[in-house]
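Whiteboard transcription, Tuesday session. T.W. wrote the structure tokens on the left side:
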């Protein structure tokens, strides 16, 4: 059963997470107005607030959110789910236009 409130759009963007005074590089697997999926090389602590940058076609966006879960991937990395708690208007506007992209080709 789908528990997400918002549709997620499959998109791959670079992500930098500030976590315990270190920067962790990753990439998104999908984005939405209220959350995103991401891949990281190592597990991050769940139920913890994180600050991160996402490099979208409209420019770098500074976001914060709560890391809700992570699970190992077959390639040795970790897939994680983030609930966004603070997002700039530019990010919300970008995610809003994704549903109007009839061919789902906005990168």
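and on the right, the sequence the group agreed on:
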């Amino acid at each position: 059963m789908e528990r997400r409130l918002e549709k997620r759009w499959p998109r791959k963007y670079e992500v930098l997470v500030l976590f315990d005074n270190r920067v962790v590089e990753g990439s998104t697997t999908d984005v939405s107005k209220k959350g995103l999926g991401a891949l990281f090389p190592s597990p991050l602590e769940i139920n913890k607030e994180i600050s991160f940058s996402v490099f979208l076609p409209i420019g770098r966006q500074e976001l914060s959110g709560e890391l809700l879960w992570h699970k190992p991937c077959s390639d040795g990395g970790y897939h994680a789910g983030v609930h966004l708690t603070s997002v700039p208007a530019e990010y919300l506007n970008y995610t809003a236009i994704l549903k109007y992209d009839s061919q789902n080709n906005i990168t």
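Someone added at the bottom: The two ends are 28 Å apart (CA to CA).
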